[in-house]
Design goal:
The complex is a heterodimer of chains A (203) and B (252). Chain A is mainly alpha-helical. Helices cover 74% and strands 7% of the residues of chain A. Chain A is built from two helices and two strands. In chain B, α5 crosses α6 and α5 runs antiparallel to α7. The chains are: A mainly alpha (203), B mainly alpha (252).
């Protein structure tokens, strides 16, 4: 097993030894009462050359940044931000304008729809009226035609009946004369046929 | 058996000069300035009207982060004039912190006391100067040393505490917080790197597989240092904003 042996020598030099069980090598020890070794300058105290180079570099950096670089970068940033802000405002204005246009269009659409509805209603009223008038005219014409047709039918029916009556009278008189052997009275036959046709038409 | 010799602390903190009076800390500080200026120069040259990309995106994100995440939270809209100062402070500290985990650098410039101390001292001058400019010398120190709403008898106790806290301790706490955090991270990385190296090179073959344990810890700590680098820069910046905001608008 390895063992770490840490020894302080001379106040600051640290000696670390890892040794196996076989043997631990003793670290050199500072002899008691020996003169303290010269450790060099205090490690914390600042060196003038480092102070001068460090602070000088910083001052140069600060002057260049303060007078030239930061104002230029900041100006560019401000210009771009102003541009972005102007673009955003322009976009907002365009959006508001578009919304106004949409509102205007919708108002016009409502107006046009109302006007169209009014016109449709007026047309419907006109159509209803004209249709009523046309139907009335057609009905009148139909009634006139019907009356005319009925009159014609009645005339033709009367003429047909007269013809049938004459034919039946002729047939009846001829049949009667054949059956009886003498000429039948034409007026009696005509009256009888007329009565028979009348009674048949009445049934 | 392995023998791990941890180097003296100065060996991992003090760097040889690569040129007269120019060491790794100076290189990191100068590079931080060059990188920051390059990013913002590229950003400033890019077409601002288009959607930001690359360096411009990075620059604008950092500006907005400082404005929205630091200034608006601590100083309000009136503090936006401090954006260049706070942005530079944040970027400089961050770019000095990050080399702690970048191969070949592996040293955060803020793990040495010089830069945190210089920046903290500058912040102290700036917030006291801003307070005096806005409220006048007497008005500023009156608002700092004699906070309103405190019973007069308590001023005997409160005034020395406020003086020590606001005038003396603040720059020390700012500097030490940044320095100590970055130094601790650097030492931890060095420790686990040395330990894993020693285990991998151990003469006793049975110890070699154990080298993965400190190596995994090293990987985890490297990731953690990315977070620490950002966090310490943010803390330093936001505290600076709080101090300036408090000095300029004591009623807040």
């Amino acid at each position: 097993m390895a063992t770490a042996v840490v020894t302080l020598s001379g106040g600051s030099v640290v000696s670390v030894r890892l040794a196996s069980e076989k043997g631990v090598a003793a670290a050199p020890r500072a002899e008691e009462g020996a003169e303290p070794k010269d450790m060099g300058p205090n490690p914390i105290s600042p060196e003038i050359k480092e102070l001068a180079w460090g602070f000088g570099s910083f001052l140069v950096f600060l002057v260049v940044m303060r007078l030239f670089l930061v104002p230029k970068v900041r100006k560019g940033m401000a210009e771009r931000y102003d541009g972005i802000r102007a673009d955003l405002e322009g976009a907002d204005a365009s959006k508001a304008e578009a919304r106004a246009d949409v509102a205007k269009y919708e108002a016009a659409l409502v107006e046009v729809r109302a006007e169209a509805a009014k016109r449709v209603d007026a047309a419907r009223v006109t159509l209803d009226r004209e249709r009523g008038e046309a139907i009335a005219t057609a009905n009148q014409r139909i009634a006139a035609k019907k009356a005319e047709a009925e009159a014609t039918a009645a005339t033709e029916r009367a003429a047909a009946r007269d013809q049938i009556s004459a034919a039946v009278t002729t047939v009846t008189a001829t049949a009667t004369s054949i059956a009886v052997g003498k000429q039948a009275d034409n007026s009696v036959v005509t009256q009888a046929v007329a009565q028979a046709m009348q009674s048949t038409g009445a049934r | 058996m392995i023998a791990l010799e941890f180097p003296p602390i100065n060996a991992i903190l003090r760097w040889q000069d690569v040129a007269p009076s120019f060491n790794k800390i100076a290189i990191v500080a100068v590079l931080a300035t060059i990188i920051g200026c390059t990013i913002f120069t590229l950003a400033a040259r890019a077409d601002a009207r288009r959607a930001p990309r690359g360096a411009r995106n990075l620059a604008e994100t950092s500006v907005e982060f400082i404005e929205n995440g630091v200034i608006m939270q601590t100083m309000g809209r009136d503090g936006l004039g401090w954006t260049p100062f706070l942005l530079t402070l944040f970027l400089f500290i961050y770019l000095c912190n990050v080399p702690g985990i970048i191969p070949f650098f592996q040293m955060p410039a803020t793990a040495r006391m010089a830069i945190p101390a210089a920046l903290a001292l500058m912040v102290w001058v700036v917030y006291n100067g801003a307070g005096i400019k806005h409220q006048g010398f007497g008005g500023y120190f009156k608002s700092v040393l004699f906070p309103p709403g405190v019973p007069k008898a308590l001023y005997v106790l409160v005034t020395p505490i406020e003086f020590i806290s606001a005038i003396i301790v603040r720059p020390f706490s700012l500097a030490v917080r940044l320095f100590a955090n970055m130094l601790a991270g650097h030492i931890l990385l060095v420790t686990f790197a040395l330990l894993s190296e020693s285990l991998f090179q151990a003469k006793d073959k049975i110890l070699i597989p154990f080298g993965v344990l400190p190596m995994f810890m090293l990987i985890f700590l490297t990731g953690f240092e990315v977070l620490v680098a950002f966090l310490q820069a943010y803390i330093f910046t936001i505290l600076t904003a709080v101090y300036i905001g408090g000095a300029v608008h004591p009623e807040h």
